[in-house]
Amino acid sequence: MQVVVDLNRCQGYAQCVFLAPKVFELHGDEALMYLPEVPDDQREHVLRAATACPVRAVLVGEPAGAD
Ligand code: SF4
C-alpha cells in the first residue's frame, strides 16, 4: 500500500503521527515526514490515520497494477 500526504492541506494536527508513528513523523511544527511505501504491518494504522485526519490530507492506495 502507498500513502501520499497532501502537504498543502496538512495543518500539522498530528493525528496521523499518533495513529501510525512508524509511518508519519512531525519535524518541528508543520514539517510532516512519512514513508510513502507502507509496510504491511502498518496498513491498519495508516488507514486509521487517513480516516482521522481532520483535513483529509492522507491519501492511500495500491500501486498501479497491483492486485
Ligand atoms: S493528521 Fe492530517 S493534518 Fe494532521 S499532520 Fe497528519 S496529515 Fe497533517
UniProtKB/TrEMBL annotation:
Keyword set, alphabetical order: 3Fe-4S, Electron transport, Iron, Iron-sulfur, Metal-binding, Transport
Gene3D superfamilies: 3.30.70.20
Superkingdom in the source lineage: Bacteria
Cofactor(s) listed: [3Fe-4S] cluster
Keyword Iron-sulfur: yes
TM helices/strands, residue ranges: none
Entry keyword annotation includes Secreted: no
Pfam families xref list: Fer4_15
Name of this protein: Ferredoxin
Species, as recorded: Streptomyces luteireticuli
